[in-house]
């Protein structure tokens, strides 16, 4: 798969089919993840794959409880995504949140059917600087295999219980960074159409100074090099 196709069409997939992901596919996904850049090449990460039905069932109960907590915060106006970004359209933000809740409800209701839960742990992660490149590499590699997924932190509401269930050696400093739910998607891949364009979210040299180029539409697959981009300013 062309790298730009992977970059442009990898998106969060929450509606997943129950058929298992072959072990060789899982191996390729994780082998790509461990090639990600990380500070000092210290590789302070651990990937824990969960496919045991009984364990997934226990985690599903926690996941549903965690989502209920998150949406209680959201309803009270205290959730992390309750307000749109500065300059964003509030109506579009509300519609996005509605869609995300719908697909998130599906994931919660069918959590036991997700073929693979991939928990990602790190030590002294500097706010995620070392682990998030690996997570994104895993999602891109999954996309190349036709596997969809979503990164979620809902289960961090129950860190102690999750650590107990998974036997995490927390005394060594391991902390859950995120969990990926992975499976073959029910939906279709496609370029995200609801992104604000480059010139609205970018500056040059000083905040608010025009970036210098307008990008009226996604540059892939139309013409990635786009020699006719309009220079502004």
UniProtKB/TrEMBL annotation:
Matching entries from Gene3D superfamilies are given as: NADH Oxidase (3.40.109.10)
Q: Nitroreductase domain location, by residue?
A: 10-184
Q: What is this protein called?
A: Nitroreductase
Q: Name one GO molecular function term.
A: oxidoreductase activity
State the organism's lineage: Bacteria, Bacillati, Actinomycetota, Actinomycetes, Mycobacteriales
- Which organism does this sequence originate in? Mycolicibacter sinensis (strain JDM601)
Which key words tag this protein in UniProt?
A: Flavoprotein, FMN, Oxidoreductase
Q: Which domain of life is it from?
A: Bacteria
Q: Which residues form a coiled coil?
A: none
InterPro entries from the UniProt entry: Nitroreductase, Nitroreductase-like, Nitroreductase/BluB
């Amino acid at each position: 798969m062309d790298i730009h196709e992977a970059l442009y069409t990898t998106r969060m997939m929450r509606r997943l089919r129950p058929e298992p992901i072959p072990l060789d596919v899982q191996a390729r996904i994780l082998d790509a993840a461990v090639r990600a850049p990380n500070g000092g090449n210290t590789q302070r990460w651990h990937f824990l794959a969960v496919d045991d039905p009984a364990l997934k069932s226990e985690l599903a109960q926690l996941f549903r409880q965690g989502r209920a907590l998150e949406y209680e915060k959201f309803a009270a106006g205290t959730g992390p995504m309750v307000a749109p970004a500065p300059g964003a359209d509030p109506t579009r933000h509300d519609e996005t949140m509605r869609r995300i809740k719908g697909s998130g409800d599906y994931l919660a209701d069918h959590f036991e059917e997700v073929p693979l839960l991939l928990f990602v742990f790190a030590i002294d992660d500097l706010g995620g600087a070392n682990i998030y490149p690996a997570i994104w590499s895993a999602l891109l590699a999954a996309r190349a295999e036709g596997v969809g997924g979503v990164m979620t932190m809902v289960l961090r509401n129950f860190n102690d219980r999750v650590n107990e269930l998974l036997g995490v050696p927390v005394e060594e400093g391991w902390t859950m960074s995120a969990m990926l739910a992975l499976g073959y998607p029910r939906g279709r891949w496609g370029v995200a159409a609801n992104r604000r364009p480059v010139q609205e979210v970018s500056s040059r040299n000083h905040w608010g100074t025009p970036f210098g180029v307008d990008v009226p539409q996604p540059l892939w697959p139309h013409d990635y090099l786009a020699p006719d981009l309009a220079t502004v300013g």
